[in-house]
Amino acid sequence: MAQLWGRAAVACVVVTVALAAPRAFADKTERNFAGSIQLDYMAIPTESVGRDIALDAATAEVSLKVTQDFGDRLTASVKLCVGCHGVETGMAFFDLRISDELSFRVGRFTPQFGSFPIRHDPANHRTSDKPLPYDMGRMLRLTDWNMGVMPSPWVDNGVELSGAHFFSEAVQLDYAAYAIGGPRAANDAVDFDYKLSRSGEAYYVDNNSRPTLGAHLALNVLHGSTTVTGGASGMFGTYDPLNKLHFQVAGAHLIFQVSRIFLRTEYVMRRTEMALGDDPAARFKYGPGKNGKYDPYFLKQGFYAELEVPVTDRLDLVARWDGLRRQGNVLRTSELRSDSAVLRYTLGGSFKVRGATRIKLSGELYDFSDFANEIAIHLALAGAL
Amino acid sequence: MKRLVLACAALAGCADSPRGLLTGTASPTPTDVAQACALATTKCARCHPIDRVVVSRGIGMGRWQMYVNQMRLKPSSSISPADADVILRCLRFVEDACVDCKQGRT
């Protein structure tokens, strides 16, 4: 099934290139450059050595992007990202547009999922860090939790089919469907190993010859200065080299915009199969269920609700409530339990200094079910170029 | 709670002006352009601060057409083809009238 889907996608792309190329190259080309920088300092006043539980202190996030239009239908984009992980290619793709309702993206990109990933660049969102469902290493206890549900930006090689249709000036429907390499881990894994997705030693290729498939659907309704957006996303596949460990990710979002006030809410869940191994009793903290069998799955859920209010042309305030919950067996070495949760409360502000340069200040209270509560304070300088 | 919502709305109303985009434009702003820039401010803010547009002024209309079209096709942009024309009307005025835009016009 997956192989058939992949072949069909390749055939579509070839046909699309053939159709788009003559007109695309006949038109004028335009090239542009953009980028962003954020230097964030995170202090954890509740810990004497914050590094024990987080990547604290100063971290830099940099992005440099070049886009070239080859006429109206063909665009190429390349983006380099620098973060705690070092230099990575965040984008390297072609967009082929047949119409608003049909376009293809081919290359290395972030597939459409949920709402936050479109704003993942630190120059685009008002807090220094990301909501917990999309955390990519800035949360406290990141090792215990293995980051969020679906770290953003999720960058992968593949092909995406997408489009948007305006039924009227007030109603817009978006869709996307894609095939990508997918997450990775070893054969005896109990969760994704994100380092394998950015390891040259593991090569930047699919680890199991089977694509991960996903889709996204969203509806926008406008009324005056109010916009309501609702959407759903899903992704599934296998993540181990032997194609035995399955996962499914699903998400939903609802966003209200009144003028420039935003209330954003999002929910993401991931069901992940774990390798039980030859001796589950020695490997896992909890025994079998009532049926005498070990449950090989765990469920990880995340949510956030965020209110963004512009106070003046220079100052935006943000209040955010987000959390994670993990249910299922854990390794004996894990400090989590079979049902663990964390809630976080954030208050912050983003002050425009000059041009697109902003100072971000935020305070966060972490309420862990398995650890002592913690406080984190972020101070960042972020800007776009 | 009701007071809080009203206070937020009042604050956003004050902040929701197009003057950020029009910073540095020497010419008087026609009413329709001011309205176009207010729409641009609201639409662009869905994904990024309007400052990102402000610092890019001076790139020329060819590149703005490319950008606006790309942004229009972003998921849940809420920018219809008609909205894109209105946003470009604002940007055309800014390009023509901006006296402190960066170099590199095309």
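The helical segments of chain B are 2-15, 31-44, 51-54, 61-72, 81-97.
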